[in-house]
């Protein structure tokens, strides 16, 4: 319409291109801006997540890369505009690319609470919580030295203008009238108030008690710097899932002996022990095992032989087989001094470390967690590199066990205390008993 009027009234400007939106300081504004501000960032966000996921960093460093290099791509535009529905679908694809593995071995919501619920060192940030906390920070602190943005006054002014606006124009440009930066900031403030997160409460939670020798100006700067982080944490705490229920649901896959509630609580405690006493990679491998996240052939509905080259009658590339694989049993016994927990099936000894039937000490949990990590690393390594000598594979697992404890003094001491004994030394009486137990377990598994 505008171009037609230009052609009629100003022929000289007839060829001038016009549009009802434009880009200003990184944001698309105007009646037909819609969600254009998100188009380019979402595309870059998804591609960056795939690039980092393709490197194969592991859960801990994938989380760090996502926080440092991936999520900030969307954080800028999130300050003044709400994401479209498509953004959350892309977020799910990006998280799946950042943490590769079998289908739905872990969900988007699980990744948001890795630290709070599942014994990992850090959690993936949620896009929705980043949006809400960023907008709250802008509302509270932007232009703070000159009285703020006066969002409430501007919102009321726009509301009065809408009442005087022709109905046809309002219907045509409804998205712009209702979702401009002012409306977004004001509605975010109302949303957080409804959740009980008022501005003064967040500031008080952020600043905490006065520090020794800290003046008022320094405290205000510190509070402003941590305001968005605190807001996001408070929002996260409001929706924390019931970890025991989720873990119990995931463990149902294994049909374990014992009481499910006891097994679940012990597994959650074991994850906390591994987080406090080992490198993050150990706990990450244990979580993958608990939740059936190994990329085995069986997990992808395919068949393949045991990668550890055992001579069992029935064998396959699956967690169920590796739980009773003789090569794996030899490694656990010879390098880490591990024996099966009494009255426990092979799958329970491997997946939940035998916690379904017995309570284990912290040192025992650490050793079994390290064995779990070594088996996982060896399996992923042997998917791309063929080895047919059992002793070499056992030695490979031993090296991965050492690598898993690298730069961590307490867990390294636990491992090295068992590495002192040569793998080729004659077995003790306890080792003979362990052999017998594992032979029975293999026969039971073959049935």
List keywords for this structure.
447 residues; elongated; 2 strands; 62% helix; single chain; two-stranded antiparallel ribbon; mainly alpha; 24 helices
Written description of the protein model:
This protein has 447 residues and is mainly α. It folds into two domains: 19-241, no CATH class; 246-446, no CATH class. 62% of the residues lie in helices and 1% in strands. Strands 1-2 form a two-stranded antiparallel sheet. The longest helix has 23 residues, at 216-238. The protein is elongated, with a radius of gyration of 29 Å.
List the helices and strands and how they pair.
Layout: H1 2-9, E1 22-24, E2 27-29, H2 36-55, H3 59-70, H4 72-75, H5 85-98, H6 108-112, H7 114-117, H8 127-141, H9 151-164, H10 167-172, H11 174-179, H12 181-194, H13 199-207, H14 216-238, H15 243-251, H16 260-277, H17 280-290, H18 319-322, H19 326-336, H20 346-351, H21 362-382, H22 390-404, H23 409-419, H24 429-446
Antiparallel strand pairs: 1-2
Helix pairs in contact: 2-3, 2-5, 8-12, 8-14, 9-12, 13-14, 15-16, 16-17, 16-21, 17-21, 19-21, 19-22, 19-24, 21-22
| Overall 3D form | elongated
Count of separate DSSP helical elements: 24
Q: Please give the alpha-carbon distance between the first and last residues.
A: 79 Å
Output the structural class: mainly alpha
Q: How many structural domains?
A: 2
Largest sheet: 2 strands, antiparallel
Any idea what the radius of gyration is?
Answer: 29 Å
Helix-strand topology string: HEEHHHHHHHHHHHHHHHHHHHHHHH
Write down how many β-strands occur, each being a DSSP E stretch of 2 or more residues: 2
Strand residue content:
under 5%
- Overall residue-averaged pLDDT value: 89
What strand order characterises the main sheet? 1-2
């Amino acid at each position: 319409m505008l171009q037609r009027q230009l052609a009629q009234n100003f022929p000289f400007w007839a060829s001038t291109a016009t549009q009802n939106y434009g880009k200003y300081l990184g944001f698309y504004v105007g009646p037909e801006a819609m969600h254009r501000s998100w188009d380019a960032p979402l595309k870059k966000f998804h591609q960056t997540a795939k690039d980092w996921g393709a490197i194969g960093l592991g859960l801990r460093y994938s989380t760090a890369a996502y926080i440092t290099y991936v999520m900030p791509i969307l954080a800028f535009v999130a300050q003044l505009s709400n994401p479209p529905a498509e953004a959350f679908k892309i977020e799910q694809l990006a998280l799946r690319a950042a943490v590769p593995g079998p289908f739905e071995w872990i969900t988007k919501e699980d990744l948001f609470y890795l630290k709070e619920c599942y014994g990992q060192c850090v959690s993936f940030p949620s896009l929705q919580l980043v949006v809400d906390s960023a907008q709250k920070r802008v509302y509270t602190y932007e232009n703070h030295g000159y009285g703020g943005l006066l969002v409430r006054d501007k919102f009321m002014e726009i509301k009065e203008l809408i009442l005087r606006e022709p109905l046809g124009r309002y219907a045509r440009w409804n998205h712009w009238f209702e979702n401009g930066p002012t409306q977004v900031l004001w509605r975010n403030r109302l949303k957080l108030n409804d959740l009980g997160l008022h501005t003064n409460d967040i500031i008080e939670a952020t600043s905490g008690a006065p520090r020794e020798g800290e003046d008022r100006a320094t405290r205000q700067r510190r509070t402003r710097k941590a305001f968005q982080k605190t807001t996001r944490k408070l929002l996260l705490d409001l929706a924390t899932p019931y970890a025991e229920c989720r873990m119990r649901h995931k463990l149902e896959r294994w049909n374990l002996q014992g009481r499910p509630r006891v097994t679940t609580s012990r597994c959650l405690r074991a994850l906390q022990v591994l987080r406090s006493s080992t490198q993050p990679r150990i706990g990450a491998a244990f979580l993958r095992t608990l939740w059936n996240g190994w990329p085995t052939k069986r997990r992808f509905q395919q068949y393949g032989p045991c990668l550890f080259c055992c001579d069992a009658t029935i064998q396959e590339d699956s967690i169920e087989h590796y739980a009773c694989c003789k090569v794996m049993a030899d490694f656990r016994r010879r390098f880490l001094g591990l024996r099966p927990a009494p009255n426990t099936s092979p799958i329970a000894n491997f997946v939940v470390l035998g916690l379904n039937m017995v309570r284990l000490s912290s040192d025992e949990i650490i050793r079994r967690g390290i064995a779990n990590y070594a088996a996982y690393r060896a399996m992923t390594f042997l998917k791309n590199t063929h080895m047919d000598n059992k002793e070499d594979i056992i030695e490979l697992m031993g090296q991965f066990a050492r690598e898993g404890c690298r730069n961590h003094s307490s867990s390294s001491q636990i491992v090295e205390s068992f590495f002192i004994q040569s793998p080729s030394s004659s077995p003790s009486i306890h080792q003979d008993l362990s052999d017998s137990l594992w032979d029975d377990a293999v026969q039971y598994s073959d049935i």
